[in-house]
Structures are given as structure tokens and as C-alpha cells.
Amino acid sequence: MTFISVKPGTLLSPTPVVMVSCATVTQRPNIITVAWAGTVNSDPPMLSVSIRPDRHSHDIIRDSGEFVVNLVNRELLKACDLCGVRSGREYDKFSLCGLAPVPVSGLSSAPAIAQSPAYLACRVKETLSLGSHTMFLGEIVIMGIEETLMDAAGKIDFHKAGLVAYSHGEYAGLTEPLGFFGFSVARPEVIRRRMRK
Fold first, then answer.
1. Its pTM surpasses 0.70
2. Is 4 part of a structural domain of the chain?
3. Burial class (CB in 10 A: 0-12, 13-18, 19+), 70
């Protein structure tokens, strides 16, 4: 394989595309589309979102100390894109997109998006100014999963959710599973059972 050297950039791809909802007690709820989000710790469960300081949601999250990461499926994709190209300073994005904010247990003001298949509610633990973006490290205080995504054993079936990802300016649907964690060393009968779906 031959590589061509190029200047450094944000090549990591694909990334999750999420809708981050936020609010303060004095400001209406807002939604920002974020492709720079990821898990950072498992105990306690934490994730990060990186947002430019000039974005309307930046100061809302800084001031409230909380935010909700809403996963995006195919049905939410157009609303997700619209929330990424319109500013909450000018638009009520919940109303603009026909979405409903729902209160989240454990948070004082940031709502979840009722139409999202799943959400992760976070309290800001640390804020890091990194240059072009501020990274908000959030501890996940509660999660909400759309009940039809849960199987009888209590396992989440995200393949039913129709989640999407972001890859250098384009949205992409996730494919059928190609494997599972540990499949490279699993017994053949385990692979048959797990990949049967």
C-alpha cells in the first residue's frame, strides 16, 4: 500500500452525528448539530462534545453546565441537517423542525428530543478551550432509550434504530453488522448465533 502525505486535519471518519440539546432557565431550548462527539471514559460514564465559541449553544452549555446528546436516525436526518445550518439566535429550532423537547430527570433545564431513538443526558465536568473549539466533558447522568429498541433480554438493538453517521461532509446510514467485539476469537457456534440477526 502506498500513502501520500497531506497536511494534518480532522480526517477521523466516520463520526457519529448527534443533535445536542441545551437550555438555561432563562433561554429557550436550542439544538446544535455536532459531529465532534465521542465517549471518553467508562467509570464514570463520560463523553465530550466540541463546539466553536461563536455558536449560540456554546454559551448556553457553558452557563447551564448541562446538555443532552440525542442520537440521530434516518427520520431525524433532515431536521439534524437544518439544525446545523440555522442559528438558534434567529430560530426556535424545536419549532422550526417540528420537534418536541422533553424534560430529563437529573437535569435542571436541558431537554431531550422526543423523536430521538436514544439520548445521553450530561452534566459538564470540565471545559477545555482547545483553539477553534471548546470541548465540554460531560458526565452521563441518565440515558433514555426508545422502548421498541429493547429486546426481551433488555439488550439495545441499535440496528433497528436506523442510525446515521457523518463522513467528511456527507451523511451515511450504518450497514448491517459485519462482526461483533471479539468475533475474531469466537467459537464458530457463537459467530453463527450472534451473526444470525
1. yes
2. no
3. buried
